[in-house]
């Protein structure tokens, strides 16, 4: 048994000529590998050449067009994958998932297609959501084109407010090349289905602009595909609501408007920057390099394509453009323990006094958090010794875009022994000491979803434990300070309110423990008060474990409330191919009636005894921002995750296979003047210096 340890517990088929078969990649893990740039280009070219689709380039043109938004791997069905992996069956057909915005038709919509076979696609078919649910056009994710048009509309609408903005902030929108204003947009984009009206937080465009709101928030309606019909519906300035731009401008012209005057930002040492300022009181040096990770005898892991091996571990991985890291075929000691382990969604719910703050409920899959995997800095984001891998995404672009160093793999000293014991003789000596160094292999990527940075880790330990962890850092989502706002957070700077919010992260864990037929049980620890069997009249109070089998999907009330997936700490369902994910890229802009609803996974209350099961895990934390979140939220105390741990699965701790322990025994007890030291690694690790200087590029370009 393996335990989850929770820290808080269109039917159309089109065929074209194919130019012939290609050689299969040698490693079985490649069936789960992300699409290569050549495959991404091949899918786009094939679809763009289909006249019935009428696709236009993503860049430029009107919103009311048919365009290709996303291309990523469509993973094989589990049955086909296992037939190939376990029984030498045929390699599964390699396909792509393509998301198309059909805006140039009488009833605009978003349609998903399966395209294949790769690497030379010749056909496509529609992909359906469970229950035949469809995606309306207004629920589509935002695109760069829509943001450009949104900015143009905002600049035009704000022209009457330029005197106000220049007087209060020293910055503006009109004819701007420097000292400009910008905006952050809030979601959901409305209060009900069919809406696409967004609150925009106006900010000074300086380094760390997320922390520089100017006190103006604008509600802009942009549902109509024609931007000429977009309009500002409402404004909020310095605690007051206004029905239109003219009303606010006239109030200012009459002198009846209390201005929120902002001080001039300094040329250096801006509070939202990373520039050092101040000194530590101890005077200990910080101008020199600190401790580093090194590999004195080379790497102790093997990385081949998307196959990762370390100790007893072997797994395949990919980085989905839509939702991020996904592991497949996770094995320990050659035996599969999980078919899939993946990030599903990251949610942040905010409170506040301003309209933008109270409306903010971010669902980051809707912002394609997997494609927000920007370059990792060697020596900062990952150790200098790490292996770095590029990622390629085709998202809202006219070709694949290369994201260099988007993932890293490294072995990490944990700083605490995996296990150790000092066996005292209680006479000033010892019988033996033994210890095994603590090490873990880390697979890491990040998602920078505008202001916030998520650091995603999977950690593999030599004793068969797998840990998932996410750290939250980056800039807080902050709004303009008003006295009424203090009920919803903290005043973190003179004109800045850090808004209270909750982070929730959802994972899919498709466990296959000794096969795909699994059951689910809980263990409750309760205290019992019983008569002492060896002393009459005495009582014994002691803990007792009670195992309870769970036979149906719908959790008992004592376990979790029957709300959305993000309200369950743990829910277990029978696995179905039409339930691949608990969320989607459309939930953010249509949270009221999304095409994927987790409740439908458990509402039928299927039996889950001796079935192929999926555990859905939610972790999270409450964040009350404070002054120390300036300039950025720090990672300590802002990390959550869970563990997969073997529970009577092995006959002993599998880390005994490691050759890294140290055993010390005295040869002349109790004097202990002569010692026998046993170790299976070189006595000295040797020099531990990484010779390459720091380098960073930071660009991501179409290839």
Secondary structure layout plus pairing:
Layout (H helix, E strand, L loop, with lengths): L1 E4 L8 E2 L21 H12 L17 E9 L3 H10 L7 E8 L6 E8 L6 E5 L7 E2 L7 H14 L4 H8 L11 E5 L11 E8 L8 E9 L9 E7 L2 E3 L2 H9 L47 E4 L2 E4 L2 E8 L3 E9 L2 E16 L4 H5 L1 E3 L23 E9 L5 E13 L5 E6 L5 E7 L2 E11 L2 E9 L5 E9 L3 E3 L8 E5 L2 E4 L1 E11 L8 E12 L7 E12 L19 E5 L24 H5 L9 E11 L15 E8 L14 E6 L8 E5 L21 E2 L1
Antiparallel strand pairs: 1-34, 2-6, 3-4, 3-19, 4-5, 5-6, 5-7, 8-9, 9-10, 10-11, 11-12, 13-14, 14-15, 15-16, 16-17, 17-18, 17-29, 19-20, 20-23, 20-37, 21-22, 22-35, 23-24, 24-25, 25-34, 26-28, 27-28, 29-33, 30-31, 32-33, 35-36
Short description:
The protein is mainly β. It has three domains: 28-127, Nuclear Transport Factor 2, Chain: A (Roll); 144-254, Roll (Nuclear Transport Factor 2, Chain: A); 312-654, Copper amine oxidase, catalytic domain (Beta-galactosidase, Chain A, domain 5, Distorted Sandwich), CATH 2.70.98. The chain has seven helices and 37 strands.
């Amino acid at each position: 048994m393996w335990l989850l340890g929770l820290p808080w517990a269109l039917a159309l088929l089109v065929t074209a000529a194919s130019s012939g078969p290609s050689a299969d990649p040698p490693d079985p893990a490649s069936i789960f590998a992300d699409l290569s740039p050549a495959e991404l280009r091949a899918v786009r070219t094939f679809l763009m050449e289909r006249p019935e689709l009428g696709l236009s380039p993503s860049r430029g043109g009107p919103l009311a067009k048919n365009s290709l938004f996303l291309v990523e791997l469509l993973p094989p069905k589990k049955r086909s994958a296992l037939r190939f992996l376990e029984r030498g069956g045929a390699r599964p057909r390699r396909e792509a998932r393509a998301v198309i915005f059909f805006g140039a038709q009488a009833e605009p919509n978003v349609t998903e297609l399966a395209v294949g076979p790769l690497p030379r696609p010749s056909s496509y078919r529609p992909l359906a959501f469970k229950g035949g649910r469809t995606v309306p056009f207004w629920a589509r994710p935002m695109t760069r084109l829509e943001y450009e048009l949104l900015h143009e509309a905002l600049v035009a609408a704000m022209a009457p407010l330029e005197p106000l903005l220049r007087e209060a902030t020293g910055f503006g929108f009109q004819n701007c090349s420097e000292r400009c204003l910008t905006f952050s947009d809030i979601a959901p984009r409305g209060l009900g289905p069919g809406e696409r009206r967004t609150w925009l937080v106006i900010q000074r465009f300086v380094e760390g602009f997320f922390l520089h709101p100017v006190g103006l928030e604008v509600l802009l309606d942009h549902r109509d595909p024609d931007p000429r019909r977009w309009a500002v519906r409402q404004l909020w300035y310095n605690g007051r609501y206004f029905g239109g731009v003219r009303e606010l401008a006239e109030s200012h012209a009459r002198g009846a408007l209390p201005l929120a005057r902002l001080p001039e930002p300094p040329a250096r040492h801006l509070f939202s920057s990373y520039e050092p300022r101040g000194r530590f009181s101890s005077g200990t040096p910080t101008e020199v390099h600190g401790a580093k990770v090194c590999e004195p005898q080379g790497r102790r892991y093997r990385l081949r394509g998307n196959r990762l091996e370390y100790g007893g571990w072997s797994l395949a991985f990919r980085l989905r453009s839509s939702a991020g890291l996904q592991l497949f075929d996770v094995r320990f000691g050659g035996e599969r323990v999980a078919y899939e382990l993946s990030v599903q969604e990251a949610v942040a719910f905010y409170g506040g006094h301003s309209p933008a703050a109270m409306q903010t409920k971010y669902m980051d899959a809707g912002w394609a958090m997997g494609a927000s995997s920007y370059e990792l800095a060697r020596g900062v984001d990952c150790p200098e010794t790490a292996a770095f891998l590029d990622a390629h995404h085709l998202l809202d672009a006219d070709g694949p875009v290369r994201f260099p160093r988007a993932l890293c793999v490294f072995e990490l000293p944990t700083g605490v022994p995996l296990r150790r014991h000092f066996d005292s003789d209680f006479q000033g000596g010892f019988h033996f000491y033994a210890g095994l160094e603590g090490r873990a292999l880390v697979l890491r990527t990040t998602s920078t979803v505008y202001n916030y940075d998520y650091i995603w880790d999977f950690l593999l330990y030599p004793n068969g434990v797998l840990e998932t962890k996410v750290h939250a850092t980056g800039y807080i989502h902050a709004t303009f300070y008003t006295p009424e706002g203090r009920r919803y957070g903290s005043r973190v700077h003179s004109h800045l309110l850090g808004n209270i919010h909750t982070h929730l992260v959802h994972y899919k864990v498709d466990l296959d423990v000794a096969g795909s037929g699994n059951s689910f049980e809980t263990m409750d620890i309760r205290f019992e008060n019983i008569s002492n069997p060896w002393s009459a009249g005495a009582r014994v109070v002691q803990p007792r474990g009670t195992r309870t089998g769970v036979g149906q999907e719908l959790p008992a009330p004592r376990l979790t409330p029957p709300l959305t997936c993000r309200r369950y700490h743990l829910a277990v369902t029978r696995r179905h191919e039409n339930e691949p994910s608990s969320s989607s890229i459309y939930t953010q802009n249509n949270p009221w009636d999304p095409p994927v609803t987790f409740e439908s996974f458990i509402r039928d209350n299927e039996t889950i005894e001796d079935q192929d099961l999926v555990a859905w895990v939610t972790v999270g934390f409450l964040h009350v921002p404070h002054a120390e979140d300036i300039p950025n939220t720090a990672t300590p105390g802002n990390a959550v995750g869970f563990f997969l741990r073997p529970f009577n699965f092995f006959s002993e701790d599998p880390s005994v296979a490691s050759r890294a322990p140290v055993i010390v025994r005295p040869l002349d007890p109790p004097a202990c003047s002569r010692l026998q030291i046993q170790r299976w690694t070189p006595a000295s690790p040797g020099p531990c210096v990484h010779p390459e200087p720091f380098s960073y590029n930071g660009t991501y370009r179409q290839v």
